[in-house]
Amino acid sequence: MTFVKNISSTVKTVTGNDVTMIAGFSKAQLQALAQQSALVADMIEANAFTAAEKMFHLDGLDQMARGFVTTFVQIVEVEIEKIYNAVVKSIYGSIGTLAGVKMPVPGRADERSYPVSSVQEYTIPAGGVMPNRPQIVPASQVDSEMAPDFSSVRYRMLAQGDSWFSINGLNLFRASSLLPHLDFGHSAIIVNCADPGDTLAHMVEWRRDPWFASYLCGPRERPWDAMLLSAGGNDLIDALGVLPTDAHGTPHSPGDRLMLTKSERKQPGKTYVSEDGWALFAQHLSAQYAALDAMRASSKTNRNMPIITHTYDYPMPRDLGAGLHFGPWLYPALLAYEVPPDDWKTLAKEFIDRLFDLVSGLALQNFHVIRTLGILTPADADSRISSPDWLNEIHPTSSGYGQIAGRFCADVAARNILA
Q1: What is the pLDDT of residues 282-291, one digit of tens each?
Q2: Which segment of 65-74, 177-186, 300-309, 390-399 scores lowest on mean pLDDT?
Q3: In sequence order, what are the residues at sequence separation of 6 or more whose Cβ sits closer than 8 angstroms to the Cβ of residue 31?
Q4: Measured between alpha carbons, how far is residue 333 from residues 145, 261, 342 in Å?
Q5: End of a domain among 67, 99, 131?
Q6: Cis omega (within 30 of 0) for bond into 328
Q7: Do 308 and 228 form a contact (C-beta atoms < 8 A)?
Q8: Over the range 152-182, which residues count as b (16 or more CB within 10 Å of their CB) and which as e?
Q9: Is 390 in a helix, a strand, or coil?
Q10: Same structural domain, 93 and 136
């Protein structure tokens, strides 16, 4: 009887807190998926989307559902391993106690920890988590029964951005994002509107992102202490993805692309960059930032709210995407333009530096650009060699995001941006 009680107690101890966490995770994600699905369905029924926008949102829902299932399966696998190891240890311990001898426990299953991206980014931080780490809330939960208590924290922030911020997109087992690593010295709630692959042009269009517009300057508007922004990277990637010719073999003019072809580079004074193309890109991206500033200006309570943005870090172009046919992003373009591999790293750095110069040169009020370049160790060009700082071609590991977050928060504090 004692033997059975020992095993039962062990299983209860191991699973007690985890079952609550898994239930909370599942409820929050299924509710967010249901609400997002209902919103998209209503917009489709009202004919508010073009055909392309409809496919964009349906693909997003598909990614969200697949991400939840993948993460849930991984969590369950981890839980089974933990139970197995605990039960085996309890059995041998009990037998050893009854027999009066110490019995060696046989080999254990490889016990993993829960993926940081799954638990830390999908659930409200509980006891044991650093007190100043933010509580990250998907935008769809703000007006639901899962709504956070905004009065319980020092800072209330609205986040918009791409995969460097997103928590409901590509949920790969080892993936992470920048937001969970932030620490502004006080408690904070971050309402997250970010989506993987999002461009700034999409972020400022209400039909593409109704949650963001609604909470910033629409019917659900509320006062925010700051907007956290991760933008420009996908706009740059999309522009770099314009190849020398279209699908029918018709050449794209240099003004429509960011890189010059091999034959064009032979001309005196020419490099890899199409200056005409870059000028048009800079004009386009500047207009999107102006549109974001106009959204802030139209707000009743957030007109003077600071916007704080990072500037990514230097990626190494290589044949390593995020899985599920996402990426690589820079590698195909460099192959298409016949750029020698020895120049890949330098060219990628030039484009990121140009993006930094563009964003940091914008004449916007209370707009703060935090330089996050040169923090991470560049990955190896060989995609078979893993990197401690880079998960794939353009996304850092959890450790990499942690390093960038440290610089980001330190700079925010040094500038006294947050009231």
Answers
A1: 999 999 999 9
A2: 65-74
A3: 140, 141, 144, 145, 146
A4: 46, 11, 15
A5: 99
A6: yes
A7: yes
A8: ebebbbbbbbbbbbbbbbbbbeebbbbbbbb
A9: strand
A10: no
Taking the C-alpha atoms of residue 278 and residue 353, their distance in angstroms, rounded to an integer, is 13
Which residue did the predictor score with more confidence, 412 or 145? 412
Q: Identify whether 110 is part of a domain.
A: no
Q: Which residue type, as a one-letter code, is found at position 74?
A: Q
| pLDDT tens digits, 82-94 | 666 776 676 667 6
Tally Cβ neighbours within 10 Å of residue 296: 21
Tell if the pTM clears 0.85, that is, is over it: no
Give the confidence band of 47 by pLDDT, cuts at 50, 70, 90.
confident
Q: Which domain holds residue 182?
A: 121-414
Question: Is there a contact between 111 and 77 (Cβ–Cβ < 8 Å)?
Answer: no
Same domain, 324 and 182: yes
Provide mean pLDDT across the span 121-143.
65
368 shares a domain with 298: yes
Beta bridge partners of 155: 188
pLDDT of 406: 95
Structurally, how many domains does the chain consist of? Answer: 2
Counted residue by residue, the chain has a size of: 419
Gap between the Cα atoms of 43 and 361, Å rounded = 37
- Please give the pLDDT value at position 245: 94
